[in-house]
């Protein structure tokens, strides 16, 4: 079988299989479900602007005393917030949706004046003006029906007829159910959460369950303590008729419980699925560092939304696929311990979590499965020509863009993998360890320059150009790789590159390439491509070169075409599409003696969108923007090609 033909056939077959998954709404990929769940949680705040009025103080410890039942869309609470003035202040402001009504506010036992304004703010007049550095405590009593808006910030529902309540606050939904300061600047120092609910239900929250006290009125109050810094959006509760399944994970002396709250009707299946968790924890700990909340717990609470949400120490889960378990667990390091410092930097959360789920594939399933995982990512990334990992100010106004599975998840993950290829495993993983251990970032916030600085220190490389190309700017390269014989045992590799987006004039990248001999042996090397149209001499360990695979393990984000520049090589490898991407007209360049009989164009859903005869120029102006596949029938056989409609 000809190597490049096999490569392109594989691309087409996997693309069609993946497209069929996309067509079936019950068979979405895990990362799409993740993105959709997090996107759904964010829709309610698509026009949100961080509240500058909450910037005058630092939040300390917060105690939430909550009363709720999973059969009623209602919550009552008493929230005690410790805070320290960052400047002279006579009022304190919390974010709180106007659907909830405050009945009283006290400071040092004395009642305070307050208003709830039209901007969903609770503005409290303090007893006296506080000076910078002064600390105090306010207690807010409130109740009401959180918005049942369909955006999952506070949900009451059922599973198999049994009631359930859960919260999902990313990025700014916490104010829908409790008065808080929600931003990406100031983490809460720690929380105590008391949940009073009908005694037949099990309550869930962050941290360690301290006790569950049966009250005289048929209710039960469950107390959780979480003594790590936490942003408001990661504070969560759930209430249902859970069956609890506990395991132990971690490396001694830092072992900890993994507490799983599961639907009883699904327990036989789900308790087996969650048993994958300790092995993944062990892998992450051996690769990076000890689980960052090992003094407390990890766990899962089953809920009724697609995907998952990485609430600190307890991920809320719509299912228990291994990829989802690995993704949400990874967030405990990348998202919970270190949280992205702005929504522009969301890839530091989602790109890392996606890549770590890929590392689990590599570790548990082997190199071939990891190659398939990377191919699926590349298929999604290159399905459209534009898009950066890092968001612009305008991008942050679009929830679809923040939680783009193509960019924030898949491209973010593959940029990390390319950085690993560029730096080497030892330097890459050491850089990530140093990033996690940075005392200025740990249990706080980080932005992209913070991560870049650690990777440069670990590798000794200047990564400015890499980050400019692959993080801050858009698109990806298409390579035309021409391999021609040189001296005996040598070939000249000529590298031509075009870019899918004008924001990058040239992508600098290490380029993996594999050379095959006619007897099936092969030679791998990585070419350092620093300029366009570069020619590189490669010494081969054999003289009988038969074929070439460019990017054989899908380690870089790229389209590619390989041309072998001598008649002794397989003719089908000399077929070239240009320009690629193409806006109106797409042309074929054919080797001598090869003629076209027909060409059939397919979109990424596997649907036929264009059929032509024996022409070599195609009018593609009517096709939708994005990636397409072509089945080209020639007098020499069938070739599978792909191109981007610009």
From TrEMBL:
Keywords: Aminopeptidase, Hydrolase, Metal-binding, Metalloprotease, Protease, Signal, Zinc. It catalyses: Release of an N-terminal amino acid, Xaa-|-Yaa- from a peptide, amide or arylamide. Xaa is preferably Ala, but may be most amino acids including Pro (slow action). When a terminal hydrophobic residue is followed by a prolyl residue, the two may be released as an intact Xaa-Pro dipeptide. This is Aminopeptidase N. The lineage of its organism: Bacteria, Pseudomonadati, Bacteroidota, Flavobacteriia, Flavobacteriales. InterPro entries: Aminopeptidase_N-like_N, Aminopeptidase_N-like_N_sf, Peptidase_M1, Peptidase_M1_aminopeptidases, Peptidase_M1_dom, Peptidase_M4/M1_CTD_sf, Secre_tail. Belongs to the peptidase M1 family. NCBIfam families: Por_Secre_tail. Residues 322-470 form the Peptidase M1 membrane alanine aminopeptidase domain. GO terms for molecular function: alanyl aminopeptidase activity; metalloaminopeptidase activity; peptide binding; zinc ion binding. Residues 58-234 form the Aminopeptidase N-like N-terminal domain. Its cofactor is Zn(2+). Residues 1-19 form the signal peptide. CDD domains: M1_APN_like. One of its GO terms (cellular component) is membrane.
